[in-house]
Amino acid sequence: MKILIIGGVAAGTKTAAKLKREDRNIDVTVITKDKDISYAGCGLPYYVGGLIEGRDELIVNTPQKYSALTGVEVRTGKEAVALDAEKKQVTVQDVQTGEKEVCSYDRLVVAVGASPAILPIEGKELAGVFKMRTPDDAEGIRTYAEQNNVKKSGCDRSWFHRT
Questions:
Q1: Average pLDDT score over the chain
Q2: pTM of the full predicted structure?
Q3: Rounded mean pLDDT of 67-92?
Q4: Disulfide-capable partner of 7 in 12, 21, 36, 137 (CB 3.0 to 4.6 Å)?
């Protein structure tokens, strides 16, 4: 049995680990377009605000550690760009090189998670306006804040103070 899971954060990694616990002989592969898997999303604002000092503190498992613990193959930097359900194939594209490959499966799990709502407001494309969902997003915001001497940053109805 070959199971392909698209999405490498909470739902994808938990599903993959559970499947391997139930049957160590099945082939489970997780693909994700990001470089990180299994990160503490709730900690992102605290990283931006400086309460969490290191980016590595956000990462629950690296792909290598997760694979060693679970037996699941993890392929980062790969985005699913096409699905042929009849042939049970997913076309996967490397996010850096653009190279494509076709992955076959017996069962497919789509666990791509949430995406930030981009509001239809004036100025959303200006420098200093960000979305935040991943550690990379948080790192970009934190870098911008440090380089521009930002003392406060707001997110929805919450305020995070930088010291």
A1: 90
A2: 0.84
A3: 98
A4: 12
Q: Which position among 22, 42, 98, 123 bears the catalytic label?
A: 42
CA angle 4, 78, 39 (to 5 degrees): 85
Q: Please say if the pLDDT value at position 127 is more than 80.
A: yes
DSSP the chain: -EEEEE--SHHHHHHHHHHHHH-TTSEEEEEESSS-EEE-GGGHHHHHTTSS--GGGGEEE-HHHHHHHH--EEEESEEEEEEETTTTEEEEEETTT--EEEEE-SEEEE-----------TTTTSTT----SSHHHHHHHHHHHHHTT--EEEETTEEEE--
103 catalytic per annotation: no
Q: Looking at 84-93, 101-110, 122-131, 138-147, which range is the least confident one? A: 122-131
Domain edges within the chain? 2-155
